[in-house]
Inverse folding.
Protein backbone atom coordinates (compact mmCIF):
# COMPACT_ATOMS: atom_id res chain seq x y z
CA UNK A 1 0.00 0.00 0.00
CA UNK A 2 1.45 3.38 -0.86
CA UNK A 3 0.75 6.69 0.81
CA UNK A 4 -0.40 8.49 -2.26
CA UNK A 5 -2.87 10.69 -0.43
CA UNK A 6 -0.75 13.79 -0.37
CA UNK A 7 2.09 12.94 -2.68
CA UNK A 8 0.50 12.09 -6.03
CA UNK A 9 2.36 13.13 -9.15
CA UNK A 10 -0.70 14.67 -10.79
CA UNK A 11 -1.64 18.30 -10.06
CA UNK A 12 -2.96 18.86 -6.54
CA UNK A 13 -6.61 19.79 -5.96
CA UNK A 14 -6.96 23.31 -4.66
CA UNK A 15 -8.64 23.43 -1.29
CA UNK A 16 -11.75 25.59 -1.47
CA UNK A 17 -13.05 27.25 1.67
CA UNK A 18 -16.73 26.96 2.52
CA UNK A 19 -17.44 30.55 1.58
CA UNK A 20 -16.11 30.01 -1.91
CA UNK A 21 -18.36 27.07 -2.73
CA UNK A 22 -21.21 28.10 -5.03
CA UNK A 23 -24.59 26.39 -5.08
CA UNK A 24 -24.59 23.85 -7.90
CA UNK A 25 -28.00 24.75 -9.28
CA UNK A 26 -27.01 28.40 -9.64
CA UNK A 27 -23.71 27.65 -11.33
CA UNK A 28 -24.54 24.92 -13.79
CA UNK A 29 -27.02 23.96 -16.44
CA UNK A 30 -28.12 20.58 -15.22
CA UNK A 31 -29.13 17.85 -17.64
CA UNK A 32 -32.43 16.04 -17.20
CA UNK A 33 -32.14 12.81 -15.27
CA UNK A 34 -32.56 9.65 -17.22
CA UNK A 35 -34.14 7.67 -14.43
CA UNK A 36 -34.91 7.32 -10.75
CA UNK A 37 -36.99 9.89 -8.98
CA UNK A 38 -39.29 12.06 -11.03
CA UNK A 39 -38.59 15.14 -8.94
CA UNK A 40 -34.90 15.32 -9.73
CA UNK A 41 -35.29 18.38 -11.88
CA UNK A 42 -37.00 20.52 -9.31
CA UNK A 43 -34.53 22.34 -7.11
CA UNK A 44 -37.11 22.89 -4.42
CA UNK A 45 -37.37 19.13 -4.03
CA UNK A 46 -33.66 18.47 -4.03
CA UNK A 47 -33.94 16.14 -1.06
CA UNK A 48 -36.88 14.24 -2.54
CA UNK A 49 -35.20 10.87 -2.21
CA UNK A 50 -34.88 11.35 1.50
CA UNK A 51 -38.06 13.07 2.57
CA UNK A 52 -40.55 12.86 -0.29
CA UNK A 53 -43.86 11.10 -0.14
CA UNK A 54 -46.00 9.08 -2.58
CA UNK A 55 -47.16 12.24 -4.37
CA UNK A 56 -43.60 13.09 -5.42
CA UNK A 57 -42.65 9.99 -7.40
CA UNK A 58 -44.07 7.09 -9.43
CA UNK A 59 -45.83 4.49 -7.32
CA UNK A 60 -43.38 1.69 -8.16
CA UNK A 61 -40.48 3.83 -6.92
CA UNK A 62 -42.35 4.89 -3.78
CA UNK A 63 -42.97 1.21 -3.12
CA UNK A 64 -39.23 0.56 -3.22
CA UNK A 65 -38.21 3.44 -0.95
CA UNK A 66 -41.08 3.88 1.53
CA UNK A 67 -39.71 1.51 4.14
CA UNK A 68 -36.02 1.59 3.22
CA UNK A 69 -34.29 3.49 6.03
CA UNK A 70 -31.43 4.72 3.82
CA UNK A 71 -33.45 5.72 0.77
CA UNK A 72 -36.12 7.60 2.75
CA UNK A 73 -35.27 10.03 5.56
CA UNK A 74 -38.76 9.68 6.99
CA UNK A 75 -38.48 5.89 6.98
CA UNK A 76 -35.22 5.96 8.93
CA UNK A 77 -37.01 7.06 12.08
CA UNK A 78 -39.20 3.95 11.96
CA UNK A 79 -37.63 1.11 9.95
CA UNK A 80 -34.43 -0.83 10.54
CA UNK A 81 -31.80 -2.42 8.33
CA UNK A 82 -29.22 -5.07 8.91
CA UNK A 83 -25.97 -6.06 7.26
CA UNK A 84 -24.40 -9.49 7.06
CA UNK A 85 -20.63 -9.66 6.77
CA UNK A 86 -20.31 -12.30 4.05
CA UNK A 87 -17.91 -10.44 1.74
CA UNK A 88 -14.40 -10.29 3.24
CA UNK A 89 -12.26 -9.73 0.13
CA UNK A 90 -11.76 -6.48 -1.70
CA UNK A 91 -10.44 -5.75 -5.17
CA UNK A 92 -9.20 -2.22 -4.52
CA UNK A 93 -7.50 -0.31 -1.73
CA UNK A 94 -8.91 2.95 -0.42
CA UNK A 95 -6.66 5.16 1.68
CA UNK A 96 -9.38 5.46 4.32
CA UNK A 97 -9.85 1.73 4.89
CA UNK A 98 -8.12 -0.85 7.06
CA UNK A 99 -10.13 -4.03 7.25
CA UNK A 100 -7.71 -5.69 9.66
CA UNK A 101 -8.92 -3.44 12.42
CA UNK A 102 -11.73 -5.13 14.30
CA UNK A 103 -13.30 -3.55 17.31
CA UNK A 104 -16.96 -3.65 18.23
CA UNK A 105 -16.60 -0.15 19.66
CA UNK A 106 -15.55 1.26 16.38
CA UNK A 107 -17.54 2.52 13.49
CA UNK A 108 -16.11 3.13 10.07
CA UNK A 109 -15.82 1.41 6.66
CA UNK A 110 -14.75 -2.21 6.66
CA UNK A 111 -15.03 -2.81 10.38
CA UNK A 112 -16.79 -5.99 11.47
CA UNK A 113 -16.72 -8.45 14.33
CA UNK A 114 -17.85 -11.81 12.90
CA UNK A 115 -17.56 -12.90 9.28
CA UNK A 116 -20.35 -15.24 8.20
CA UNK A 117 -20.97 -17.93 5.60
CA UNK A 118 -24.08 -17.37 3.45
CA UNK A 119 -25.90 -20.09 5.45
CA UNK A 120 -25.04 -18.45 8.77
CA UNK A 121 -25.98 -15.09 7.35
CA UNK A 122 -29.43 -16.24 6.27
CA UNK A 123 -30.05 -17.83 9.66
CA UNK A 124 -29.08 -14.57 11.31
CA UNK A 125 -31.33 -12.46 9.07
CA UNK A 126 -34.34 -14.67 9.70
CA UNK A 127 -33.69 -14.55 13.46
CA UNK A 128 -33.32 -10.77 13.47
CA UNK A 129 -36.42 -10.31 11.30
CA UNK A 130 -38.41 -12.39 13.76
CA UNK A 131 -37.24 -10.32 16.72
CA UNK A 132 -37.28 -6.90 15.02
CA UNK A 133 -40.39 -6.82 12.79
CA UNK A 134 -39.59 -3.32 11.53
CA UNK A 135 -36.34 -4.67 10.01
CA UNK A 136 -37.18 -4.33 6.31
CA UNK A 137 -33.84 -4.33 4.48
CA UNK A 138 -30.89 -6.67 4.28
CA UNK A 139 -27.69 -5.16 2.95
CA UNK A 140 -24.39 -6.78 2.01
CA UNK A 141 -21.85 -4.07 2.68
CA UNK A 142 -18.55 -5.73 3.31
CA UNK A 143 -16.38 -5.89 5.26
CA UNK A 144 -14.71 -6.00 1.81
CA UNK A 145 -16.55 -5.43 -1.47
CA UNK A 146 -19.78 -7.32 -2.09
CA UNK A 147 -18.95 -7.88 -5.78
CA UNK A 148 -15.38 -8.99 -5.12
CA UNK A 149 -17.14 -11.93 -3.40
CA UNK A 150 -19.96 -12.54 -5.88
CA UNK A 151 -20.71 -16.15 -4.99
CA UNK A 152 -21.07 -15.47 -1.26
CA UNK A 153 -23.08 -12.32 -1.87
CA UNK A 154 -25.49 -13.81 -4.40
CA UNK A 155 -25.86 -17.12 -2.50
CA UNK A 156 -26.93 -15.10 0.52
CA UNK A 157 -29.51 -13.14 -1.46
CA UNK A 158 -30.84 -16.21 -3.24
CA UNK A 159 -31.33 -18.22 -0.04
CA UNK A 160 -32.84 -15.30 1.81
CA UNK A 161 -35.35 -14.60 -0.92
CA UNK A 162 -36.65 -18.15 -0.53
CA UNK A 163 -36.97 -17.92 3.26
CA UNK A 164 -37.99 -14.30 3.85
CA UNK A 165 -39.51 -12.90 0.66
CA UNK A 166 -40.72 -9.65 2.25
CA UNK A 167 -37.20 -8.38 3.00
CA UNK A 168 -35.76 -5.88 0.53
CA UNK A 169 -32.31 -6.68 -0.81
CA UNK A 170 -29.59 -4.06 -0.92
CA UNK A 171 -25.87 -4.04 -1.55
CA UNK A 172 -22.95 -1.69 -1.78
CA UNK A 173 -19.89 -1.86 -3.98
CA UNK A 174 -16.88 0.14 -5.07
CA UNK A 175 -18.10 -0.51 -8.64
CA UNK A 176 -14.98 -2.10 -10.10
CA UNK A 177 -16.67 -5.43 -10.85
CA UNK A 178 -20.14 -3.95 -11.30
CA UNK A 179 -20.71 -3.90 -15.10
CA UNK A 180 -20.00 -7.62 -15.45
CA UNK A 181 -22.43 -8.47 -12.62
CA UNK A 182 -25.37 -6.17 -13.32
CA UNK A 183 -27.39 -8.95 -14.93
CA UNK A 184 -26.92 -11.15 -11.88
CA UNK A 185 -27.96 -8.28 -9.61
CA UNK A 186 -31.20 -7.98 -11.57
CA UNK A 187 -31.72 -11.74 -11.57
CA UNK A 188 -31.83 -11.73 -7.74
CA UNK A 189 -34.24 -8.77 -7.59
CA UNK A 190 -31.75 -6.54 -5.81
CA UNK A 191 -33.58 -3.24 -6.07
CA UNK A 192 -31.09 -1.03 -4.28
CA UNK A 193 -27.41 -0.70 -5.11
CA UNK A 194 -24.93 1.74 -3.62
CA UNK A 195 -21.74 2.63 -5.49
CA UNK A 196 -19.01 4.46 -3.61
CA UNK A 197 -17.78 7.15 -5.99
CA UNK A 198 -15.27 9.61 -4.61
CA UNK A 199 -14.11 11.13 -7.89
CA UNK A 200 -14.84 11.46 -11.58
CA UNK A 201 -11.27 12.55 -12.33
CA UNK A 202 -8.54 9.89 -12.09
CA UNK A 203 -6.01 12.56 -11.11
CA UNK A 204 -8.00 13.01 -7.90
CA UNK A 205 -8.61 9.27 -7.65
CA UNK A 206 -4.87 8.69 -7.53
CA UNK A 207 -4.78 10.43 -4.17
CA UNK A 208 -7.51 8.16 -2.78
CA UNK A 209 -6.79 4.74 -4.34
CA UNK A 210 -3.22 3.38 -4.26
CA UNK A 211 -4.13 0.28 -6.30
CA UNK A 212 -6.82 -1.88 -7.83
CA UNK A 213 -6.75 -5.58 -8.68
CA UNK A 214 -7.83 -5.91 -12.29
CA UNK A 215 -7.53 -8.79 -14.79
CA UNK A 216 -5.38 -10.78 -12.31
CA UNK A 217 -2.91 -7.92 -11.90
CA UNK A 218 -2.33 -5.16 -9.40
CA UNK A 219 -2.52 -1.80 -11.13
CA UNK A 220 -1.37 1.41 -9.47
CA UNK A 221 -1.35 5.16 -10.09
CA UNK A 222 -3.46 7.12 -12.57
CA UNK A 223 -4.29 4.03 -14.62
CA UNK A 224 -5.87 2.31 -11.60
CA UNK A 225 -8.21 5.24 -10.98
CA UNK A 226 -9.01 5.59 -14.66
CA UNK A 227 -10.20 1.98 -14.86
CA UNK A 228 -12.14 2.29 -11.61
CA UNK A 229 -13.83 5.49 -12.80
CA UNK A 230 -14.83 3.96 -16.14
CA UNK A 231 -16.25 0.87 -14.47
CA UNK A 232 -18.20 2.97 -11.96
CA UNK A 233 -19.79 5.15 -14.64
CA UNK A 234 -20.60 2.18 -16.86
CA UNK A 235 -22.08 0.24 -13.93
CA UNK A 236 -24.23 3.20 -12.88
CA UNK A 237 -25.58 3.66 -16.39
CA UNK A 238 -26.39 -0.05 -16.67
CA UNK A 239 -28.25 -0.09 -13.35
CA UNK A 240 -30.23 3.01 -14.31
CA UNK A 241 -31.18 1.44 -17.63
CA UNK A 242 -32.53 -1.59 -15.77
CA UNK A 243 -34.52 0.45 -13.22
CA UNK A 244 -32.39 -0.41 -10.17
CA UNK A 245 -32.41 2.44 -7.63
CA UNK A 246 -28.81 3.49 -7.30
CA UNK A 247 -27.36 5.51 -4.46
CA UNK A 248 -23.92 7.07 -4.66
CA UNK A 249 -21.81 7.35 -1.53
CA UNK A 250 -18.92 9.80 -1.52
CA UNK A 251 -16.41 10.29 1.25
CA UNK A 252 -15.59 13.98 1.69
CA UNK A 253 -11.82 14.30 2.05
CA UNK A 254 -10.88 17.93 2.73
CA UNK A 255 -8.23 19.22 0.33
CA UNK A 256 -8.61 16.22 -2.00
CA UNK A 257 -12.18 15.96 -3.28
CA UNK A 258 -14.27 18.56 -1.42
CA UNK A 259 -14.90 20.94 -4.31
CA UNK A 260 -14.76 18.02 -6.73
CA UNK A 261 -17.80 16.34 -5.14
CA UNK A 262 -19.99 18.98 -6.77
CA UNK A 263 -18.77 17.65 -10.11
CA UNK A 264 -19.35 14.08 -8.91
CA UNK A 265 -22.90 15.04 -7.98
CA UNK A 266 -23.52 16.46 -11.46
CA UNK A 267 -22.06 13.42 -13.23
CA UNK A 268 -24.00 10.85 -11.22
CA UNK A 269 -27.24 12.77 -11.62
CA UNK A 270 -26.67 12.80 -15.36
CA UNK A 271 -26.43 9.01 -15.24
CA UNK A 272 -29.64 8.56 -13.25
CA UNK A 273 -28.44 8.14 -9.64
CA UNK A 274 -31.41 8.25 -7.27
CA UNK A 275 -29.54 9.65 -4.26
CA UNK A 276 -26.14 11.10 -3.40
CA UNK A 277 -24.82 10.55 0.11
CA UNK A 278 -21.82 12.75 1.00
CA UNK A 279 -20.17 11.41 4.16
CA UNK A 280 -17.31 12.75 6.28
CA UNK A 281 -13.91 11.04 6.15
CA UNK A 282 -13.16 9.10 9.33
CA UNK A 283 -9.39 9.10 9.78
CA UNK A 284 -8.05 8.78 13.31
CA UNK A 285 -4.38 7.73 13.44
CA UNK A 286 -5.23 4.69 15.59
CA UNK A 287 -7.36 3.23 12.78
CA UNK A 288 -4.13 2.49 10.92
CA UNK A 289 -5.39 3.71 7.57
CA UNK A 290 -3.14 5.59 5.16
CA UNK A 291 -5.11 8.77 5.73
CA UNK A 292 -5.03 8.22 9.49
CA UNK A 293 -1.26 7.82 9.43
CA UNK A 294 -0.58 10.72 7.07
CA UNK A 295 -2.67 13.08 9.19
CA UNK A 296 -5.37 13.64 6.57
CA UNK A 297 -8.16 15.26 8.55
CA UNK A 298 -11.90 14.81 8.15
CA UNK A 299 -14.28 17.75 7.59
CA UNK A 300 -15.94 19.80 10.32
CA UNK A 301 -19.73 19.82 10.52
CA UNK A 302 -20.06 23.06 8.59
CA UNK A 303 -17.56 21.99 5.91
CA UNK A 304 -19.63 18.86 5.33
CA UNK A 305 -22.88 20.82 5.28
CA UNK A 306 -21.44 23.44 2.91
CA UNK A 307 -20.55 20.81 0.31
CA UNK A 308 -23.94 19.12 0.74
CA UNK A 309 -25.71 22.47 0.41
CA UNK A 310 -23.65 23.33 -2.67
CA UNK A 311 -24.99 20.16 -4.30
CA UNK A 312 -28.64 21.10 -3.71
CA UNK A 313 -30.36 21.22 -7.06
CA UNK A 314 -28.29 18.32 -8.37
CA UNK A 315 -28.83 14.66 -7.51
CA UNK A 316 -31.04 14.23 -4.46
CA UNK A 317 -29.04 14.28 -1.24
CA UNK A 318 -29.06 11.80 1.60
CA UNK A 319 -27.92 13.37 4.87
CA UNK A 320 -28.95 10.77 7.41
CA UNK A 321 -26.24 8.17 6.76
CA UNK A 322 -24.62 6.68 9.90
CA UNK A 323 -21.64 5.06 8.14
CA UNK A 324 -22.75 1.66 9.42
CA UNK A 325 -20.59 -1.31 10.23
CA UNK A 326 -20.65 -4.29 7.87
CA UNK A 327 -22.58 -6.21 10.54
CA UNK A 328 -24.86 -3.44 11.83
CA UNK A 329 -28.35 -4.38 13.06
CA UNK A 330 -31.21 -2.05 13.98
CA UNK A 331 -32.40 1.47 13.28
CA UNK A 332 -29.77 3.71 11.71
CA UNK A 333 -27.85 5.18 14.62
CA UNK A 334 -28.33 2.19 16.91
CA UNK A 335 -26.47 -1.08 16.83
CA UNK A 336 -28.04 -4.27 18.15
CA UNK A 337 -25.53 -6.65 16.56
CA UNK A 338 -24.34 -7.84 19.99
CA UNK A 339 -27.81 -9.31 20.60
CA UNK A 340 -27.40 -11.56 17.54
CA UNK A 341 -23.95 -13.16 17.73
CA UNK A 342 -23.71 -16.72 16.37
CA UNK A 343 -23.54 -18.10 19.96
CA UNK A 344 -26.76 -16.35 20.88
CA UNK A 345 -28.45 -17.33 17.61
CA UNK A 346 -27.87 -20.98 18.39
CA UNK A 347 -29.91 -20.62 21.59
CA UNK A 348 -32.74 -18.72 19.93
CA UNK A 349 -35.99 -20.27 18.84
CA UNK A 350 -36.75 -18.66 15.51
CA UNK A 351 -40.28 -18.41 14.13
CA UNK A 352 -40.56 -16.37 10.94
CA UNK A 353 -44.11 -15.11 10.97
CA UNK A 354 -44.84 -13.06 7.86
CA UNK A 355 -48.31 -12.08 9.11
CA UNK A 356 -46.96 -10.81 12.43
CA UNK A 357 -44.32 -8.77 10.66
CA UNK A 358 -46.91 -7.25 8.36
CA UNK A 359 -49.24 -6.37 11.24
CA UNK A 360 -46.39 -4.67 13.09
CA UNK A 361 -45.27 -2.76 10.00
CA UNK A 362 -48.83 -1.57 9.42
CA UNK A 363 -48.71 0.00 12.89
CA UNK A 364 -45.32 1.57 12.11
CA UNK A 365 -46.77 2.99 8.92
CA UNK A 366 -49.63 4.67 10.84
CA UNK A 367 -47.07 6.30 13.15
CA UNK A 368 -44.90 7.38 10.21
CA UNK A 369 -47.87 8.96 8.46
CA UNK A 370 -48.84 10.73 11.68
CA UNK A 371 -45.31 12.19 11.82
CA UNK A 372 -45.60 13.32 8.20
CA UNK A 373 -49.02 14.92 8.81
CA UNK A 374 -47.79 16.69 11.98
CA UNK A 375 -44.87 18.13 10.02
CA UNK A 376 -47.07 19.39 7.18
CA UNK A 377 -49.52 20.96 9.63
CA UNK A 378 -46.74 22.69 11.61
CA UNK A 379 -45.09 23.92 8.39
CA UNK A 380 -48.36 25.37 7.09
CA UNK A 381 -48.90 27.19 10.39
CA UNK A 382 -45.37 28.57 10.63
CA UNK A 383 -45.26 29.63 6.96
CA UNK A 384 -48.51 31.56 7.42
CA UNK A 385 -47.18 33.15 10.62
CA UNK A 386 -43.82 34.22 9.28
CA UNK A 387 -44.10 34.69 5.52
CA UNK A 388 -40.99 36.42 4.19
CA UNK A 389 -38.93 35.72 7.31
CA UNK A 390 -35.67 34.12 6.19
CA UNK A 391 -34.12 33.28 9.56
CA UNK A 392 -32.72 29.76 9.58
CA UNK A 393 -31.13 27.92 12.53
CA UNK A 394 -30.00 24.44 13.51
CA UNK A 395 -31.66 22.52 16.33
CA UNK A 396 -30.31 19.35 17.96
CA UNK A 397 -32.81 16.69 19.04
CA UNK A 398 -32.58 13.91 21.61
CA UNK A 399 -34.53 10.94 20.28
CA UNK A 400 -34.48 7.20 20.67
CA UNK A 401 -36.61 6.61 17.56
CA UNK A 402 -40.15 6.89 16.27
CA UNK A 403 -39.49 10.43 15.05
CA UNK A 404 -40.26 11.92 18.48
CA UNK A 405 -38.45 13.98 21.13
CA UNK A 406 -38.21 11.16 23.62
CA UNK A 407 -34.68 10.81 25.00
CA UNK A 408 -33.11 12.25 28.15
CA UNK A 409 -30.17 14.56 27.50
CA UNK A 410 -27.91 12.39 29.66
CA UNK A 411 -28.66 9.21 27.69
CA UNK A 412 -27.97 10.54 24.22
CA UNK A 413 -25.22 8.92 22.15
CA UNK A 414 -26.35 10.63 18.96
CA UNK A 415 -28.19 13.92 18.46
CA UNK A 416 -30.22 14.41 15.29
CA UNK A 417 -29.76 17.87 13.77
CA UNK A 418 -32.56 19.72 11.95
CA UNK A 419 -32.33 22.90 9.94
CA UNK A 420 -35.39 24.97 10.85
CA UNK A 421 -36.93 28.04 9.24
CA UNK A 422 -40.48 29.27 8.71
CA UNK A 423 -40.67 27.12 5.59
CA UNK A 424 -38.86 23.92 6.59
CA UNK A 425 -37.75 21.49 9.26
CA UNK A 426 -35.12 19.48 7.43
CA UNK A 427 -32.97 16.67 8.81
CA UNK A 428 -29.39 17.69 8.01
CA UNK A 429 -27.26 15.30 10.00
CA UNK A 430 -26.42 13.64 13.27
CA UNK A 431 -23.71 14.10 15.90
CA UNK A 432 -22.26 11.29 17.94
CA UNK A 433 -21.40 12.02 21.54
CA UNK A 434 -20.28 10.15 24.63
CA UNK A 435 -23.20 9.65 26.97
CA UNK A 436 -23.25 12.49 29.54
CA UNK A 437 -24.93 10.41 32.22
CA UNK A 438 -22.77 7.51 33.43
CA UNK A 439 -24.01 5.14 36.15
CA UNK A 440 -26.94 7.39 36.98
CA UNK A 441 -24.82 10.55 37.42
CA UNK A 442 -23.92 13.33 35.05
CA UNK A 443 -20.24 13.36 34.06
CA UNK A 444 -19.21 17.00 33.85
CA UNK A 445 -16.04 16.10 31.95
CA UNK A 446 -18.20 14.91 29.03
CA UNK A 447 -20.13 18.14 28.69
CA UNK A 448 -17.53 20.15 26.72
CA UNK A 449 -17.39 17.41 24.07
CA UNK A 450 -21.21 17.42 23.83
CA UNK A 451 -21.17 21.20 23.41
CA UNK A 452 -18.52 20.92 20.68
CA UNK A 453 -20.67 18.36 18.84
CA UNK A 454 -23.75 20.63 18.72
CA UNK A 455 -22.00 23.99 18.86
CA UNK A 456 -23.62 25.11 15.60
CA UNK A 457 -27.12 24.62 17.09
CA UNK A 458 -29.25 27.30 18.77
CA UNK A 459 -31.27 24.83 20.82
CA UNK A 460 -31.37 21.22 21.92
CA UNK A 461 -34.77 19.55 22.34
CA UNK A 462 -34.80 16.87 25.02
CA UNK A 463 -37.28 14.78 27.00
CA UNK A 464 -35.55 15.73 30.24
CA UNK A 465 -32.39 17.48 31.42
CA UNK A 466 -30.84 18.28 34.80
CA UNK A 467 -30.29 21.83 36.07
CA UNK A 468 -26.46 21.67 35.83
CA UNK A 469 -26.10 20.64 32.18
CA UNK A 470 -28.95 23.02 31.30
CA UNK A 471 -27.05 25.95 32.85
CA UNK A 472 -23.82 24.94 31.13
CA UNK A 473 -25.55 24.70 27.75
CA UNK A 474 -27.18 28.09 28.30
CA UNK A 475 -23.75 29.56 29.11
CA UNK A 476 -22.50 28.10 25.80
CA UNK A 477 -25.39 29.81 23.96
CA UNK A 478 -27.52 26.67 23.42
CA UNK A 479 -31.07 26.66 24.79
CA UNK A 480 -32.01 23.34 26.42
CA UNK A 481 -35.74 22.83 25.81
CA UNK A 482 -37.78 20.11 27.54
CA UNK A 483 -41.31 21.31 26.89
CA UNK A 484 -41.89 19.20 23.76
CA UNK A 485 -41.45 15.77 25.31
CA UNK A 486 -43.13 13.03 23.26
CA UNK A 487 -43.90 15.41 20.38
CA UNK A 488 -43.00 14.61 16.76
CA UNK A 489 -39.60 16.16 16.04
CA UNK A 490 -40.47 18.52 13.18
CA UNK A 491 -43.54 19.83 14.99
CA UNK A 492 -41.47 20.39 18.14
CA UNK A 493 -38.63 22.08 16.25
CA UNK A 494 -41.03 24.41 14.45
CA UNK A 495 -42.85 25.10 17.73
CA UNK A 496 -39.60 26.13 19.40
CA UNK A 497 -38.55 28.15 16.35
CA UNK A 498 -41.81 30.12 16.30
CA UNK A 499 -41.37 30.87 20.00
CA UNK A 500 -37.73 31.88 19.45
CA UNK A 501 -38.75 34.12 16.56
CA UNK A 502 -41.35 35.89 18.67
CA UNK A 503 -38.85 36.40 21.50
CA UNK A 504 -36.47 38.03 19.01
CA UNK A 505 -39.31 40.25 17.78
CA UNK A 506 -40.18 41.34 21.32
CA UNK A 507 -36.52 42.04 22.16
CA UNK A 508 -36.43 39.32 24.84
CA UNK A 509 -33.49 37.66 23.05
CA UNK A 510 -30.93 38.87 20.56
CA UNK A 511 -30.26 36.43 17.74
CA UNK A 512 -26.59 35.59 17.25
CA UNK A 513 -24.93 33.33 14.72
CA UNK A 514 -23.44 30.08 16.06
CA UNK A 515 -19.96 28.70 15.41
CA UNK A 516 -18.84 25.42 13.82
CA UNK A 517 -19.24 21.95 15.36
CA UNK A 518 -17.00 18.92 15.50
CA UNK A 519 -17.77 15.60 13.84
CA UNK A 520 -16.93 12.82 16.23
CA UNK A 521 -14.38 10.44 14.67
CA UNK A 522 -14.35 7.26 16.73
CA UNK A 523 -15.87 5.03 19.39
CA UNK A 524 -19.33 4.27 18.15
CA UNK A 525 -21.09 0.98 17.97
CA UNK A 526 -22.84 0.91 14.77
CA UNK A 527 -20.78 0.70 11.10
CA UNK A 528 -19.43 -0.82 7.18
CA UNK A 529 -17.99 -0.65 3.83
CA UNK A 530 -18.91 2.77 2.62
CA UNK A 531 -22.36 1.30 2.07
FE1 LIG B 1 -26.96 -1.09 4.09
FE2 LIG B 1 -26.16 0.75 2.47
FE3 LIG B 1 -28.21 -0.75 1.84
FE4 LIG B 1 -28.44 1.06 3.74
S1 LIG B 1 -26.48 1.22 4.87
S2 LIG B 1 -26.16 -1.45 2.08
S3 LIG B 1 -28.06 1.45 1.59
S4 LIG B 1 -29.08 -1.05 3.87
FE5 LIG B 1 -27.35 3.45 4.94
FE6 LIG B 1 -25.51 2.72 6.58
FE7 LIG B 1 -25.25 4.98 5.32
FE8 LIG B 1 -25.04 2.77 4.02
S5 LIG B 1 -26.81 4.48 6.77
S6 LIG B 1 -23.67 3.42 5.59
S7 LIG B 1 -26.22 4.56 3.45
FE1 LIG C 1 -12.45 -2.05 -0.27
FE2 LIG C 1 -14.54 -0.73 0.81
FE3 LIG C 1 -12.23 -0.86 2.13
FE4 LIG C 1 -12.39 0.62 -0.08
S1 LIG C 1 -13.54 0.97 1.85
S2 LIG C 1 -10.73 -0.82 0.44
S3 LIG C 1 -13.80 -0.58 -1.33
S4 LIG C 1 -13.54 -2.58 1.64
Amino acid sequence: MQASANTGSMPATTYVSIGQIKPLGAALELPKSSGGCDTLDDESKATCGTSAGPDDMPLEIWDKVKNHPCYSEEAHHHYARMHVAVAPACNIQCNYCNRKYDCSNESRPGVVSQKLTPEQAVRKVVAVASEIPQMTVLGVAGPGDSLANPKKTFDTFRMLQEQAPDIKLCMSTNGLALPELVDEICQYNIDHVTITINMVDPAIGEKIYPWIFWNHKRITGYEASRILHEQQMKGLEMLTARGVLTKINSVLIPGINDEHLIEVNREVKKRGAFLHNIMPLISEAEHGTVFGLTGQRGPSASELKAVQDACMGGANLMRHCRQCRADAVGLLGEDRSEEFTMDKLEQMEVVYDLGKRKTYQDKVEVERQAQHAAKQEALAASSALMAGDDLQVLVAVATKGGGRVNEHFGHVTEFQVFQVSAAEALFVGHRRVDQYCQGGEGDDEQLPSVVRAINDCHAVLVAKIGACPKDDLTAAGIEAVDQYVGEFIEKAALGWFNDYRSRIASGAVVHQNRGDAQIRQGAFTGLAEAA
